[in-house]
Design goal:
The chain is 30% helix and 37% strand. By secondary structure, the chain is an alpha+beta fold.
Length: 184
C-alpha cells in the first residue's frame, strides 16, 4: 500500500508542479486532498440524485453558504435553501426517467493546511433530456469553499457559489459579479 502511495506522490510531483510549488506535498496532504475532492464530488452526486434535503449534513453546524449573495447560516437555513420551492411538484416518474442533470467539477485547486482546506472549482450543469438527444449546458460558475476536518471527517465551514451563466431567477435580486468571496 505504501508503495502505491509513493508512486502516486511521485506521479503527482511530475503532473502537478503548481501544487508541489504552492504547498508541501506529503502523503498526508495528498490523502487529504483526495478526500476533499471526493467529498465535493459526492456532494454534487447527491444533489444530482435528488438528495438535496440531506445536503446540510455536508456542512459544519455553524457553516455559511453563500449562493450568489443569498446567504444561509447553519444547518436549518442551509437545508431551507435546498428545499424545492413551495408548490413545485417533483417530476412525474416517466419524466424523471428521461430527464437527468449532472454537475461536472473541473479545474480543482485544493490547498491543505493541517485540519483546514480551501477548494476552488469550476462547476458546469449538464442536462440530458433523453438517451436519443444531445446533452445541453444549463449553468456554469465557480465555487470557493473552506473546509475543516472534524473527528477525521471533512466538512464545509464556508462555501461561496458564484454563477457565471444560467443564473436561476430566484437569485436575480442578490446577484453581483465577484471573484473569490473572501478576497473582497
Amino acid at each position: 500500500m505504501l508503495k502505491k502511495i509513493a508512486k502516486v506522490i511521485a506521479t503527482a510531483t511530475l503532473v502537478l508542479p503548481v501544487v508541489a510549488q504552492s504547498q508541501e506535498l506529503t502523503m498526508e496532504t495528498l490523502l487529504d486532498r483526495i478526500q476533499v475532492e471526493d467529498f465535493l464530488t459526492r456532494y454534487y452526486y447527491d444533489l444530482s440524485n435528488g438528495k438535496a434535503h440531506e445536503l446540510a449534513e455536508y456542512f459544519t453546524t455553524d457553516a455559511v453558504l453563500d449562493v450568489d449573495s443569498m446567504v444561509a447560516k447553519g444547518h436549518v437555513e442551509i437545508g431551507k435553501l435546498y428545499e424545492r420551492p413551495e408548490g413545485a411538484n417533483p417530476p412525474s416518474e416517466p419524466e424523471a426517467q428521461r430527464r437527468r442533470g449532472h454537475m461536472l467539477l473541473t479545474n480543482p485547486v485544493i490547498t491543505i493546511n493541517g485540519n483546514e482546506a480551501e477548494a476552488h472549482v469550476i462547476w458546469t450543469g449538464v442536462m440530458n433530456e433523453g438517451v436519443g438527444k444531445a446533452p445541453s449546458l444549463y449553468e456554469q460558475g465557480r465555487e470557493d469553499t473552506k473546509l475543516v476536518k472534524q473527528n477525521g471527517k471533512w466538512l464545509i465551514s464556508y462555501r461561496c457559489i458564484s454563477s457565471d451563466s444560467g443564473l436561476p431567477d430566484k437569485f436575480d435580486a442578490t446577484y453581483t459579479p465577484r471573484g473569490v468571496c473572501w478576497e473582497k
